[in-house]
Amino acid sequence: YTGVYEMKKHTDSGFTFDIKEDHAAVMEIDGDPQIVEIPEQIDGVPVTELAEYLFSGKSCQVIRIPLGVQKIGRYGFYNCRNLEELCFSSDFTDLGSGAFTGCHRIRRMEVLMNDEQSGLKEILSEVGEELRVHLYGKVEAMLWFPEYYEEGVENTPARILMTEVHGSGLYYRNCFQGKVFHFLEYDKRFEMARAQESSDFLREMVYGRLNWPTGLTEQAKIQYEQYLKEHIEQIASDFIRQKRGEELEWLLHTYPLTPDQRELFAGLMDQANASHASEILSMLMEYQRVHFPSRRRSFDL
Question: Given 158, 184, 197, 230, which residue has the most CB atoms within 10 angstroms?
Answer without folding.
Answer: 197
